[in-house]
Amino acid sequence: MDANRLQMPSELRRLLGDGEWLADTMGCSDSQVFHVGHGYLKIVPRVSLMNLRAEKDRMLWLQGRLPVPEVYYYGVDEQNEYLYMSEIPGVMACDPVFRNDMPELIALLAEALRMMHAVDIAQCPFDQSLSYRLALAYQGVQQGRVAEEAITARYPDLIPATLYEHLTRVRPTEEDLVFTHGDFCLPNILLDRERHRVSGFIDLEYAGMADRYRDFERVCWSLGFNFSREWIPALLKAYGLEEEDQKKMMFYAQLEDLLWASELP
């Protein structure tokens, strides 16, 4: 890491100072994340499919709209892309401490969803609508970037091309557009247990206008992965959804599976 420090842009080195670098291994992306000083530094190779500029742009736009990190620095050099941002206090919604009080977690997750979806999208510049996401999926299939083994492991009778064709046939006819996180998984939601409130949102690279089921699908999957699927009906009811559209939930699960498989290393 000392070599990385020396190679960084001089302005970033100045901002980071001589503070200790603590690696953050949460998550499964190909970024390096470090807690440095009073913030977090992300480093991504320029050849990566990750886009720190997209995350930076969204955090800047969301200032004053949602509790998100403040951008301290963004830059690119010949090797890497860098994003240094403020720290949001709180515990991740996936923290095992919530096993002792799942109703509290469910209430806070529902509040986090409502906060996200209440953002006014009238001037939102970030399109994540179905047409855009399906176009990305098509591009991934056409370019051969989809990890076929990841698709066949989950859908034994399908390959990426046939999964895409299936999605075009069962595409929902209407979209209930709101501002969505895009990766509304529990590690990306920070909570203040003492004040019983949502502290903030992180990892916003894919945020933008989309159907609210995009977030429903991710948070329900993550709730089941980190705790238990038995809490999903309680979460949707706490949000205010009286009846789940299971076809739409399945559609967004399959679409996200196809898109995530196109970004695997």
From TrEMBL:
Q: What Gene3D superfamilies does this protein map onto?
A: 3.90.1200.10, Phosphorylase Kinase, domain 1
Q: Name one GO molecular function term.
A: kinase activity
Task: Report if keyword GTP-binding is assigned.
Answer: no
The residues listed in the UniProt record as binding Mg(2+), with positions renumbered to this chain, are: N188, D203
Give the positions the UniProt entry annotates as the active site.
Answer: D183 (proton acceptor)
Q: Where is the Aminoglycoside phosphotransferase domain?
A: 31-246
Q: Which SUPFAM superfamilies match?
A: Protein kinase-like (PK-like)
Q: Does the keyword Lyase apply?
A: no
Q: One of this protein's Pfam families, by short name?
A: APH
Any one GO biological process: response to antibiotic
- Top-level taxon in the UniProt lineage: Bacteria
State the UniProt keywords alphabetically: Antibiotic resistance, ATP-binding, Kinase, Magnesium, Metal-binding, Nucleotide-binding, Transferase
The similarity comment for this entry is: Belongs to the aminoglycoside phosphotransferase family.
Q: Do you know which PANTHER family this protein is assigned to?
A: 3'-PHOSPHOTRANSFERASE, PUTATIVE-RELATED, AMINOGLYCOSIDE PHOSPHOTRANSFERASE-RELATED-RELATED
- UniProt-recorded name of the protein: Aminoglycoside 3'-phosphotransferase
